[in-house]
Amino acid sequence: MKSSALGLAATICGTFLAVTPLVAHHSFSAEYDSKKQVTLKGTVSKVEWMNPHVYFYLDVNDESGSITNWALEMGPPNGLERSGWTRNTMKVGDEVTVEATLAKDNSKQANARSVTMTSTGKKLGAASSERAPQQ
User: pTM score, two decimals?
Assistant: First the structure.
């Protein structure tokens, strides 16, 4: 009896672990509108280098001179590393220009396709579907 209860508990736990990543992950088309492109230039205020996606936050001056903080999603860390990124490529305080796709909910969130470092002019692909640009 104990072994069947243990087996049931292991099955339930295994099922939960198998389904959890599916719930946490989202499709691009569910969250972003591919027809709404934006270019943002600003100062990096935070970088979160973790799975399943790297996020960074950008302080952008709008037309009125007010600063708006944008959340920008990139691909997973291992995909970015294959495209030339490292954990230290972009740091708080860096000025960057981002080509991105806006969120469907009109929030200040976008999916970054590429990031150009102002200090070096180096342009790197940021989305999981992007390859490192040839320069």
Answer: 0.73
